[in-house]
Amino acid sequence: MIKFLDLHKINARDNTKIMEAIKRVVDSGWYLRGEEVLNFEDEFARYCGVKRCIGVANGLDALRLIFKAYLVLGKLEEGDEVIVPANTFIASILGITENKLKPILVEPDLFTYNLDDSLIEKSIGPKTKAILIVHLYGQNAMTAKLKDIAKKYDLLIVEDSAQAHGSKYENKKAGNLGDASGFSFYPGKNLGALGDAGAVTTNDMILAETIRSLANYGSKEKYRFDFQGINSRMDEIQAAILRVKLKRIDKDIERRRNIARIYLNDMKNEHLVLPQCLQHDGHVWHLFVIRSRNRGAFQEYLKNEGIESMIHYPVPPHHQKAFPTLNKLNFPITEKIHQEVLSLPMSPVLHNTEIIRIVEAVNKWN
Ligand SMILES: *Cc1c(COP(=O)(O)O)cnc(C)c1O
Fold first, then answer.
1. 239 and 36 in contact (C-beta within 8 Å)?
2. Strand 168-169 to 102-106 pairing
3. How far apart are CA 232 and CA 306, in angstroms?
4. Which of 89, 184, 193, 279 is the most exposed place for a label (fewest CB within 10 A)?
5. How far is the CA of 87 from the centre of ligand 1 (A)?
6. Which of 89, 97, 139 to mutate to test the pocket of ligand 1 (most atoms within 8 A of CB)?
C-alpha cells in the first residue's frame, strides 16, 4: 500500500537530531517558556520575514488568539463580521466564532479553491472588519484585488497559513502578507511537530505582546493578570523538534513541487480535474487535490490499486451540525468541491517508483 502520508518515514530522516533535541530538553530540566521556544520563534520569524513570532499550543489557538487580541485592543467588537472562505477547514471558522465574531462565508474559486476575490465586495457590510484568508492546500490566497478591497474598506487581513508554510506572494511569504497569521505545526502539516504546536506571526509589536500575554493567562508579569487569557503555549520539546525540521523545509517544498510537476505533466484522464497552480513559488503543495464526479468509485479503485487517498474535506462547515445557524445557507461551488475532491499521496518521502505507480493507476481509470 502506498500510504497517503508516511509520518514515520518523514521523521526518520531526522531521527538522530530529533533524539538529541529531545534529550537536550529533558536534561535541561526546563520544559515550558524557555530557550527552545524563544529560539524557534526567532528562527521561524526570520523564515517568514516577519518581526515577531509567538509559539502557541496549536493552529486553532493561533487563530483564536489573533481575534481575541484584536477584541482586547479594541480593533474588533463582539458581533463584528469576518469574511472567510466557505470551503475551509473548521478551525478557520472556530477561530472567529469562539470570539463571538460572525463568520461571513464567501465562495471560493472553483479552480484555485481559494477565496474568489470578485465576490468579496458584495459581502461587505457596515460590521465587516476583517478578512480571514486561507492558503488552502498550500496555494497562496493573497491577490492584488483582495489587498485593494481591504484597504478601501479598512479591513484587517488575517492569514490562516496552517497549510502553507513558505508559500509566497510577490516574493513575501505566508505569515507576512496581512496583519497577522496563524500557523499550525500539527504532525501532518508541511512543517510538523511530534504532537500539537502552532504559532502567530505579525509585524505588529503591540499585537504580538498582547497575544503573548493572552496565551499565558493574560499575564505579562508573573501573577499579575491584565486580561482574561487562556493557556496556550508551545512546549520546549516541540520547539526543539521544530528547530530541527525547519532546516529541511525548503528542500521538502522543492521535492513537493517536483512531485506536483510530474503529476501535472503525466496525469492524463479526462474524468478528472487536476489542480491549478497560479504561481510556481505560490504553491507549497501541502495537498495534491484532484476532483472527480465519481469520487467514491475512484477512491475505491485507487485502494484496490494499493494507493491510499484522503478527502479534504467531506462536509463543508455550513453543513456541519456544529453551526446550526449556517445550515440553511447555499454555497453551490463549495458543495461541489466537497463532493468531488480527493487528495492523492503527496509528501517529500514519496519514492519515484511510487509516483510512477500512482500516475499509471490514475491514467488507467475510466
Ligand atoms: C490544520 C489546520 C488548522 C488547525 O490547526 P491545528 O494545529 O490542528 O489546531 C487551521 N486551519 C487550517 C486550514 C488547517 O489545515
1. yes
2. unpaired
3. 40
4. 279
5. 13
6. 89
Q: Give the residues surrounding ligand 1 with Cβ less than 6 Å away.
A: 58-60, 88-89, 91-92, 134, 160, 162-163, 184, 186, 196, 198
Cis peptide bond prior to 217, omega within 30° of 0: no
90 Cα–ligand 1 center, Å = 8
Task: Write the pLDDT tens digit of every residue in 284-328.
Answer: 999 999 999 999 999 999 999 999 999 999 999 999 999 999 999
- State the distance from the centre of ligand 1 to the C-alpha of 165, rounded, in angstroms: 12
- Mutation choice for ligand 1 from 65, 97, 165, 186, CB with most ligand atoms inside 8 A: 186
The residue ranges of DSSP E strands in 43-178, in sequence order, are 52-56, 81-85, 102-106, 128-134, 156-160, 168-169, 172-173
Return per-residue pLDDT of the chain as tens, 366 residues: 999 999 999 999 999 999 999 999 999 999 999 999 999 999 999 999 999 999 999 999 999 999 999 999 999 999 999 999 999 999 999 999 999 999 999 999 999 999 999 999 999 999 999 999 999 999 999 999 999 999 999 999 999 999 999 999 999 999 999 999 999 999 999 999 999 999 999 999 999 999 999 999 999 888 899 999 999 999 999 999 999 999 999 999 999 999 999 999 999 999 999 999 999 999 999 999 999 999 999 999 999 999 999 999 999 999 999 999 999 999 999 999 999 999 999 999 999 999 999 999 999 999
Sequence-ordered list of residues with C-beta below 8 angstroms from that of 183, at least 6 positions apart, any chain: 44, 59, 62, 161, 162, 165, 175, 191, 198, 199, 200, 201
The dihedral sign for the CA sequence 244, 249, 251, 256: positive
Question: From the alpha carbon of 58, which atom of ligand 1 is closest?
Answer: 7
Pick from 93, 98, 136, 160 the residue to mutate for probing ligand 1's pocket: most ligand atoms within 8 Å of its CB.
Answer: 160
pTM of the entire predicted model? 0.98
How remote is the CA of residue 161 from the centroid of ligand 1, in Å?
Answer: 8
CA of 60 from ligand 1 middle (Å) equals 6
